[in-house]
Amino acid sequence: MRVTILLTEQLSLFELGCAVELFAMPRPEFTDWYRTQIVSLSSQRYTGLAGSTLLCDMVDTLPLSDLLVIPSFPVGVIQPEEKLIAGLLEHHQRGGRIISFCSGSFLLAAAGLLDNRVATTHWRYAEQFKQRFPHIRYQDNILYEYDGMVGCSAGSAAGIDLGIEVIRRDFGYHRANSVARRLVLPAHRSGGQAQFVEKPVTLTKTGISQALDWATNNLSSVITIDDIAKKASMTRRTFDRQFNKNYNITALQWLSERKLEVAKSLLEITDLSIDEIAARSGFENAVTLRHNFRKYLSISPMQYKRTFCGS
């Protein structure tokens, strides 16, 4: 699977480093992985912070690739170069996927690639984005949005979450978790989780965070949202309100996603029956498991297994 990391007008070292770590780092533990190159359409030399300089291949046209990664793009550039826009559109029209980190969504929007899609960017640039692209469905307070073809992330570090999601869809839950562990990151932060804006929420030892840790470690039993609220020492009404405020999704959706993560992992690495997987991942029965797969993943458990068992 071929990946191209595209540098544009200026170098953002952290975002580029994230893209390289995700898609270019050798993974000898896997039998197959991405083949990645870094290119530019406009320059061979880039100046970074603290006197650093980066050299890359300058090309006339983008290489054929399955995935194009835009680490960053200057927010102040109103009209990107025609050559750059044409390269993105040609890649997209060939069926290639495109993702951007942080301010890179401004480039995707300028190219028309976010039309009729949900978009996000760093919260500092949200108003600029909405004013410049009022026709695009901008989503506040999410980490990333990815529909399988085009994706964009919020702040710089949220690009890692988006990249892990891409890896999960390409190679499965087990490999995505392996990459996350190597990065010393949580296995999964859903795109619906809230960005940390001016006043990050502090979760106390006896608050929501500890209750969610408890829930994650006890998915083998059929726990309820009432159980989690009790662990957080909150009434159900207060818990629901605080959860929605902090995570931008319902507690039920969060719990279903965690159970699905366990189920996906079991489907990939075991030969357990659907009934056994449902029990181990915290679903009431196989029917409920299948319903949640259809609801959140638009696929059946067995279709998922056939897709990823080879990985």
From TrEMBL:
Question: Could you tell me which Pfam families the record lists for this protein?
Answer: DJ-1_PfpI (PF01965), HTH_18 (PF12833)
List residues of the HTH araC/xylS-type domain. 209-307
Give UniProt keywords alphabetically.
Answer: DNA-binding, Transcription, Transcription regulation
SMART domains, sorted: HTH_ARAC
| Gene Ontology terms for molecular function | DNA-binding transcription factor activity; sequence-specific DNA binding
Query: Which top-rank group of organisms is this from?
Result: Bacteria
* Cited PANTHER family: ARAC-FAMILY TRANSCRIPTIONAL REGULATOR, HTH-TYPE TRANSCRIPTIONAL REGULATOR RV1931C
Query: What is the name of the protein in this document?
Result: AraC family transcriptional regulator, transcriptional activator FtrA
The record lists the lineage as: Bacteria, Pseudomonadati, Pseudomonadota, Gammaproteobacteria, Chromatiales
